[in-house]
Amino acid sequence: MRQADITTLLRLPLLLIVIYTIVARANPLIVLFAIAVLFISDAADGYMGTQHRHTLPDFTHYLLEEAHLAKRRERKRAQAPGYAPFLDIAVDRIIEYAFWLTFTYLQILPWFVVVIIFVRNTIADALVFRKGRTFSTMESRFGRLASSHISRGAYAIIKAVNFAYLAMVAVASWPISVGYVATTVVVAFSLLRGAAEISEALR
Residue 28: how many CA atoms within 13 Å on its side-chain side? Predict the structure, then answer.
């Protein structure tokens, strides 16, 4: 198993720590730090899966790099075992579901938000995987809306910010109204990307 895959799996015990800090209403700074580490580790496993040198300057360059994205994808497809992209997606889904369920359990979000996300992901994942594809191999123009570096990066950022804010609602009593707005943006963006994925799968 590659170092990148081990890093991916290590995000699961880190997730348990993050969820515990939220449910136990730990110090807000600890909660924010744990969430930041969790989401930075998502970029770290992708970096280790596509780069030979693992240094901080290289990692920073990887996060900011756009011009050589196609080369990175080709290198990743050539070197990574077949299960790697699906393992990464599975762990991403587990982390996302854990956050949505936690905030529903804490009665911060209504239950139908979780239902929307579950239905969206289940349908999109089933149709995309049926064609033997991952979200980095979309070919149509609309499909690339979901798979582009900008789209995936933007979604990851707004999702992380939303989860961090909702965590502060739980542990620091921040105003929930802002959380509702942020959650609406995340769900809308998710549905748009899901429509692009489904459109690609039905081509």
Answer: 11
Three-state secondary-structure class, residue 81: coil
Enter the pTM of the model. 0.80
- What separation in angstroms does the CA of 56 have from each of 6, 52, 100, 150? 19, 13, 32, 22
CA-based end-to-end distance of the chain: 34
CA distances from 3 to 36, 50, 52, 163, 186 (A): 21, 11, 11, 27, 31
Contacts of 9 (CB under 8 A, 6+ apart): 87, 91
Distances in Å between the Cα of 155 and the Cα atoms of 26, 89, 165, 193 are 27, 14, 15, 9
CA distance 137 to 6: 23
pLDDT digits (tens, 9 = 90+) for 153-177: 888 899 999 999 999 999 999 999 9
Q: Does position 110 have pLDDT exceeding 60, yes or no? A: yes
Q: What is the DSSP letter of 80?
A: S
> What secondary structure does DSSP assign to 160-198, as a single string?
HHHHHHHHHHHHH---HHHHHHHHHHHHHHHHHHHHHHH
